[in-house]
């Protein structure tokens, strides 16, 4: 409703557009909506733990409906009468009269709609009194932290973290027993990692043994921790297998999509390396081997790339081809039917080297169907008992010891009946109410469960979820309902979600924070509430992607359906078709039955459309939706250039995502989308923007190019200082020599937070060269927080040291190309948390300089595909010669570094001395040739080492990696070693 009040206020300011008497109607509606908003806020603050009665719910639903209709009317008004008649003073009278005549009919229609809406608003107010909907009362001790509204400034999260896999609580003995089962009985080396001296006799004997196959079925009701246990087993023992894959099934009936997902994960691990790498002392690095390493990784076709599609039969044949000769581990999560499991099982080949399949399910019938061999077993997960519920609650709530002891009653976790999901949700509830006292918590427990009862049943999870939902601030509730837009089991980008929140008008500037910072605060609050959980981190220490537990998502879907907030078509949910207008539509796949349901829906009021799968799922294969403000087609199939022209008729669009589609061109009609704030065309075939895009004055996020391949987006020629002044993110662009290239006008984007140049090729000392240097200096003094430059010639990177005023407020910096020397001012970047440099800059001296950066959280040395040039081998060889053949990380410095990455064809010898990098949590190495890693035991805080080996790496490299992994597994307190393969 906040966004509606803002729009009504703007409408009242445009007197020229209003017909006589309409202004009074709008003023009345504005005042009535403001009063209703305040009333609903009081209701939310005083809500009883069990929620509202049916009369109040129905009345609130009527308010929501009329609010949507008023906002639709205002938006229609805005785009049909968008032009101010203006004119000089001398002719203003004539212009005004002509304008009134020209727009008389649309203004008359809108005036009629406004009059009807005024009557509806009056009737809703009268109906509350007539049916005895009472004023809000205190909820009897239910004092939520939201009573005075959400204080965004006080809830900012400054701590940077790395998302890791948590060990399951209370199942230590089960994990040990299941771990023995998951481990292959055959003590064998992977096929592609035999000793460089040839296959051993023990290996030959292992081959002669009978293949070791097995299926483990983990069964238990929802929220008991099945997936947590299965994922922990998968993470801990996955590197013992040649191939591994994880897939979520749920109620899906699309066997082809499930098998394709498995195939896509095992394909990069299928090919044996045939490059015989001779033994190395691990100290010296020869130039000719570096050239060979880089040359062998030039982009080329993978033998299985063309086979990733096809029918179910073709996919099954490809799986057999890839897995028959390799050991594999497969996690099949959340299987709902025995028939679906049989289809999956029939498609999996018997491996000659052994396999393990872990299945999680809620149903005993599915678990029984998994038992077909003496090696197969069923493990039933039970609720936690003893001290384990307390331990889990304390770990998840992160409440101080004193507060936990004085204010948290044991009943708070006891009422959860030992169910891990309920305990975690209640812990999040406690974490978000740190000031609540012991007596208040006891009242919460009493309201959720009578004293006579001992614990909640399985159905009681919904009661806990409902209580925690009602406790949330109103704006957080709205944002949480939006989570059901995305399918069950999906890993969702945080930025994708928060940008959509902003486009929907859920978030505005607050407490002196920008709208982006407020969105970040809301997102972090949902994590703290345990409504969502982080599954992937970014290099800056912030969450990159998240997931929602299926039971939590099921609750959110039901609430969104009840409030007609989101309509979900397809997917596993049984959602009744909306009896009224569809407001937000999420199409998550579907058959002919779902298409018939959609054909009966009223789409004229759809303001948000999200499509997963194919465009053919929409009625008439059309994108003709009038008032859509958010259109998300990321990854959508069958999207053609002609559909882009239909999209450009959605004049109210604020958010448009065509990411990972087959679109090749953005039409000139894009200039009609005057409200567009975000356009995402990353990982498409679009390489140039039309000039008309410069007419979009409200543009905030312009996202293009491909970060992996460095395919870049050419800026329009007409990008001048008068346009797009609100731009905050300009990502994936190219700047190359040419008469149409515009750089000087970057000066005028003073709100720019991120500038990412994926392709830079300009003449040293030329006009563009000077303009870009000047722009970076200038913007660095304003809001620029992230700078990414990929310089093909590296001449510009060399000149960065000469900047008279370097960008000292950067949080993230990435410099790719043939970078040899670091800019002199790099040690002055006191706010820098994320740094990515070309591996050509890797020397012991460079690391010593970087160690002085006080807030550096992650450090990456990489070599992109676009920069694989034989000349780079010479640079790396010279650098290592200056470092005596190895990179030494000594004690002192890197006080806050938690993530260290090396990604290059050949990683040189790395030596970590005593007390080096005291807070390092994760070490990632991605390579084709590994010279050696020494001193890992000196990294006292290290939790994880992730080794990603190229699938064409030599036998010696793979043999060495396997030896590292086997040794690490023998040390209980050492870091967890994960070994994976990749292909480029």
Short key terms for the protein model shown above:
31 strands, globular, alpha/beta, 5-stranded parallel sheet
Distance between the termini: 49 Å
Tell me the number of helical segments per DSSP (H or I, 4 or more residues long). 30
Average pLDDT, rounded to a whole number, is: 80
Q: How much of the residues is beta strand, in percent? A: 15-25%
Q: What radius of gyration results from the CA coordinates?
A: 30 Å
Stretches where pLDDT is under 50 for at least 5 consecutive residues are 83-89, 139-148, 186-209, 269-309
In terms of structural class, how would the helical and strand content be classed? alpha/beta
Major sheet attributes: 18 strands, parallel
How are the elements arranged and paired?
Blueprint: H1 2-13, H2 22-45, H3 54-80, H4 92-102, H5 104-130, H6 172-182, H7 201-208, E1 215-219, H8 226-237, E2 243-250, H9 255-266, H10 287-295, H11 312-323, E3 328-335, H12 338-347, E4 355-361, H13 364-369, E5 377-380, H14 388-397, H15 401-407, H16 411-414, H17 420-431, H18 438-448, H19 460-471, H20 474-481, E6 492-493, H21 494-504, H22 515-528, E7 533-537, E8 543-547, H23 550-562, E9 567-570, E10 584-588, H24 592-599, E11 608-611, E12 630-632, H25 641-647, E13 655-657, E14 678-680, E15 701-703, E16 713-714, E17 729-736, E18 754-761, H26 767-780, E19 786-791, H27 795-799, E20 812-817, E21 834-838, H28 844-850, E22 858-862, H29 870-882, E23 886-889, E24 899-903, E25 906-907, E26 909-912, E27 922-927, E28 929-930, E29 933-934, E30 944-950, H30 955-969, E31 976-982
Parallel strand pairs: 1-4, 1-5, 2-3, 3-4, 9-10, 10-11, 11-12, 12-13, 13-14, 14-15, 15-17, 16-17, 17-18, 18-19, 19-20, 20-21, 21-22, 22-24, 23-26, 24-27, 25-28, 26-29, 27-30, 30-31
Antiparallel strand pairs: 6-8, 7-8
Helix pairs in contact: 1-2, 1-3, 2-5, 3-5, 9-11, 10-29, 14-17, 17-19, 21-22
């Amino acid at each position: 409703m906040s966004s509606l009040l803002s729009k009504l206020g703007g409408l009242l300011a445009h007197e020229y557009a209003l017909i006589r008497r309409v202004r009074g109607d709008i003023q009345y509606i504005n005042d009535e909506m403001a009063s209703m908003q305040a009333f609903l806020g009081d209701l939310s603050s005083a809500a009883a733990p069990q929620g509202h009665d049916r009369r109040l719910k129905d009345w609130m639903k009527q308010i929501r409906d009329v609010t949507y209709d008023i906002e639709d009317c205002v938006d229609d008004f805005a785009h049909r009468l968008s032009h101010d008649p203006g004119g000089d003073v001398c002719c203003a009278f004539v212009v005004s009269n002509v304008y009134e005549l020209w727009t008389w009919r649309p203004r008359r229609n809108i005036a009629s709609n406004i009059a009807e809406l005024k009557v509806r608003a009056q009737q809703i107010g009268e109906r509350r009194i007539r049916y005895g909907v009472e004023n809000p009362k205190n909820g009897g001790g239910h004092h939520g932290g939201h009573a005075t509204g959400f204080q965004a400034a006080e809830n900012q999260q400054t701590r940077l973290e790395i998302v890791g896999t948590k060990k399951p609580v209370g199942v230590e003995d089960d994990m040990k027993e299941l771990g023995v089962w998951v481990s292959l009985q055959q003590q064998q080396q992977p096929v592609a990692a035999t000793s460089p001296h040839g296959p051993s006799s023990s290996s030959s004997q292992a081959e002669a043994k009978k293949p070791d196959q097995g299926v483990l079925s983990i069964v238990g009701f929802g929220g008991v921790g099945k997936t947590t246990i299965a994922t922990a087993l998968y993470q801990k023992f996955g590197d013992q297998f040649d191939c591994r894959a994880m897939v979520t099934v749920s109620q899906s009936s699309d066997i082809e999509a499930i098998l394709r997902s498995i195939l896509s994960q095992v394909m990069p691990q299928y090919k044996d390396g045939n490059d015989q790498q001779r033994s190395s002392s691990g100290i010296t690095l020869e130039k000719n081997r570096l050239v060979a390493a880089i040359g062998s990784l030039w982009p080329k076709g993978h033998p299985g790339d063309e086979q990733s599609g096809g029918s179910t039969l073709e996919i099954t044949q490809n799986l057999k081809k890839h897995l028959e000769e390799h050991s594999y581990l497969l996690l099949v999560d959340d299987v709902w039917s025995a028939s679906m499991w049989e289809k999956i099982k029939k498609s999996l080949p018997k491996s000659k080297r052994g396999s393990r399949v872990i299945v999680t399910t809620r149903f005993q019938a599915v678990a029984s169907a998994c038992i077909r061999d003496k090696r197969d077993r069923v493990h039933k997960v039970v609720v936690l008992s003893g001290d384990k519920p307390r331990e889990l609650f304390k770990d998840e709530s992160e409440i101080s010891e004193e507060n936990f002891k004085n204010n948290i009653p044991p009943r708070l976790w006891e009422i959860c009946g030992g169910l891990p999901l309920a305990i975690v949700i209640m812990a999040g509830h406690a974490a978000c109410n740190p000031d609540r006292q012991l007596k208040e918590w006891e009242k919460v427990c009493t309201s959720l469960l009578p004293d006579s009862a001992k614990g909640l049943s399985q159905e009681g999870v919904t009661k806990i979820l409902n209580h925690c939902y009602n406790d949330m601030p109103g704006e957080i509730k709205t944002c949480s309902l939006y989570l059901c837009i995305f399918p069950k089991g999906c890993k969702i980008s945080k930025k994708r979600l928060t940008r959509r929140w902003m486009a929907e008008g859920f978030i505005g500037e607050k407490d002196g924070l920008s709208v982006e910072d407020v969105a970040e605060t809301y997102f972090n609050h949902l994590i703290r509430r345990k409504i969502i959980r982080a599954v992937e981190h970014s290099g800056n220490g912030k969450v990159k992607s998240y997931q929602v537990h299926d039971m939590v998502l099921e609750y959110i879907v039901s609430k969104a359906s009840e409030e007609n907030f989101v309509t979900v078509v397809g997917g596993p949910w049984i959602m009744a078709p909306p009896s009224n207008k569809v407001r937000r539509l999420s199409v998550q796949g579907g058959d002919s039955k779902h298409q018939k349901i959609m054909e009966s829906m009223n789409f004229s009021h759809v303001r948000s459309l999200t499509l997963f799968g194919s465009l053919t799922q929409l009625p008439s294969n059309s994108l003709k939706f009038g008032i859509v403000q958010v259109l998300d087609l990321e990854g959508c199939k069958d999207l053609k250039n002609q559909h882009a022209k239909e999209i450009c008729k959605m004049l109210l669009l604020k958010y448009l995502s065509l990411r990972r589609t087959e679109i090749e061109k953005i039409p000139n009609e894009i200039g009609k989308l005057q409200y567009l704030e975000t356009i995402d065309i990353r990982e498409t075939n679009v390489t140039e923007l039309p000039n008309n895009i410069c007419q979009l004055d409200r543009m905030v996020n312009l996202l293009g190019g491909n970060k992996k391949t460095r395919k870049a987006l050419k800026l329009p020629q007409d990008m001048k200082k008068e346009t797009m002044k609100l731009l905050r993110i300009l990502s994936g662009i190219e700047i190359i020599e040419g008469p149409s290239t515009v750089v000087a006008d970057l000066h005028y984007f003073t709100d720019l937070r991120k500038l990412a140049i994926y392709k830079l090729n300009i003449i040293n000392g030329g006009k563009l060269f000077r303009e870009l240097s000047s722009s970076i200096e200038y913007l660095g003094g304003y809001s620029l927080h992230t700078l990414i430059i990929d310089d093909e010639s590296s001449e510009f990177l060399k000149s960065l040291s000469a900047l008279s005023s370097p960008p000292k407020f950067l949080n993230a910096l990435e410099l790719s190309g043939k970078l040899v020397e670091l800019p002199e001012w790099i040690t002055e970047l006191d706010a820098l948390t994320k740094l990515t440099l070309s591996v050509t800059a890797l020397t012991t001296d460079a690391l010593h300089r970087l160690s002085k950066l006080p807030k550096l959280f992650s450090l990456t040395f990489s070599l992109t595909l676009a920069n694989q040039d034989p000349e780079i081998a010479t640079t790396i060889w010279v650098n290592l010669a200056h470092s005596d053949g190895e990179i030494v990380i000594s004690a002192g410095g890197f006080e806050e570094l938690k993530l260290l990455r090396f990604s290059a064809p050949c990683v040189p010898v790395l030596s970590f001395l005593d007390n080096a990098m005291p807070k390092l949590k994760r070490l990632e190495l991605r390579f084709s040739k590994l010279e050696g890693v020494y001193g890992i035991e000196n990294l006292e805080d290290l939790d994880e080492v992730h080794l990603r080996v190229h699938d064409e790496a030599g036998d010696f490299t793979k043999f060495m990696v396997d030896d590292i992994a086997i040794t690490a597994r023998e040390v209980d307190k050492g870091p967890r070693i994960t070994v994976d393969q990749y292909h480029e």
